[in-house]
Amino acid sequence: MVKIRLTRLFRFEMAHALHHYDGPCSNIHGHSYKLQVTIVGTPLDNEADPKNGMVMDFGELKKLVNRTIVDELDHALLLREDSDAELVDTLRKLHHKLVLTTYQPTCENMLLDFKTRLRKQMPEHIALHSLKLWETASSFAEWYASDEL
Ligand SMILES: Nc1nc2c(c(=O)[nH]1)N=C([C@H](O)[C@H](O)COP(=O)(O)OP(=O)(O)OP(=O)(O)O)CN2
Ligand SMILES: [Zn+2]
Questions:
Q1: For the chain, how many structural domains are there in total?
Q2: Is 0.90 surpassed by the pTM of this model?
Q3: ipTM surpassing 0.95, yes or no?
Q4: Residue-wise pLDDT tens digits, 44-77
Q5: Which one from 20, 60, 75, 96 is the annotated catalytic residue?
Q6: Pocket probe mutation, ligand 1, options 16, 25, 142, 143, max atoms within 8 Å of Cβ
Q7: How far apart are the first and last CA of the chain?
């Protein structure tokens, strides 16, 4: 059966701090993240359907990734849930867009979180192939489904 990969790029601005990290990244700082999402599936084979030939409508992929990841994280501050309680309280009182994580918000951990979230939302006939997350213009992490085998 024919398989085609589809890829779409997303961007979001997000701040984070690496809890107890032994360097400047323990301070709250921001990145312009770039996320590449690649899915794989078989193009629709139905002449009567206007989406014939599509694995998934690019627009649907955009909506799925935006509602699953980008809407929550864009212009948010990601902190580990065991960060200073006073700081967390103050940020909440000031109505900052704060997201608390169970994990250290590294590029690697964020990718694993995104992979889990996206897999739950994927239509049955489509598989998540890979994810690539740029934290800076020169640093990125990648996840490939094939590495799980
Ligand atoms: N393996 C990882 N290492 C680091 C991560 C990460 O997510 N995974 N994150 C950070 C910091 O959050 C941040 O990205 C700073 O990294 P750094 O490379 O030090 O960034 P610079 O701005 O200093 O990069 P330059 O290109 O040298 O200016 C740290 N490590
Ligand atoms: Zn950082």
A1: 1
A2: yes
A3: no
A4: 999 999 999 999 999 999 999 999 999 999 999 9
A5: 75
A6: 25
A7: 21
